[in-house]
Amino acid sequence: xxxxxxxxxxxxxxxxxxxxxxxxxxxxxxxxxxxxxxxxxxxxxxxxxxxxxxxxxxxxxxxxxxxxxxxxxxxxxxxxxxxxxxxxxxxxxxxxxxxxxxxxxxxxxxxxxxxxxxxxxxxxxxxxxxxxxxxxxxxxxxxxxxxxxxxxxxxxxxxxxxxxxxxxxxxxxxxxxxxxxxxxxxxxxxxxxxx
Length: 195
Description:
This protein is mainly α. 64% of the residues lie in helices and 2% in strands. It has helices spanning 11-34, 40-43, 61-68, 79-102, 114-132, 137-162, 175-193, and strands at residues 5-6, 9-10.
C-alpha cells in the first residue's frame, strides 16, 4: 500500500474515489445504451428544444395569458346598485335632455357649456361607483375613460345619422345633447357591469 500525501489527501483514497466514479459512469453509459433512461430530458440533453405554437391555437403566449386572466370582467350588478345608479344617471340624462330641448340654434354658443359640465359630473360619478366596488383608482379611471370614448364614438355616429341641428329629434336641437345622452348611457353601463 502506497501512502503518498498530496495536499492533505492520501493517494489511495483518491484512487478509490476515481474508481467509484468510473464505475458509476460506466453503469449510466450501459443503461443509456440499453435504453433504460430515468428521464426523457437526459436522452436528448444536447439538443435544444424549439417552442412551436400549437396548431389549433396560433395566439402568442402573452395574449393567451391576457385572455385567461382578463384585466376587466363583466359582472351582473345587484338590484340595489341598479336602482341607485339608474336614478343618478337618469337625473343627469333628464338635465341633458332639458338642455338640448331648451337650446335654440342661435343661442347655442352664447351660454355655459352645460353638456360638458354634466359629462364631467358623470365622469366623477362613474369613478365613485367603480371605486365603491373595490376597484383601484387607476383601473377605475381607465375603465371610465373607455366608457367615455365608446359613448362618444357611438353618440357621434348617431348624431351624424340624425343631424339634430338641421331636423330636431324629439325636440332636441343640440348635437352635443345627443352625444352626451349616449355617453351618459355608456357610463351607466360601464359603472354597472364592468369590474
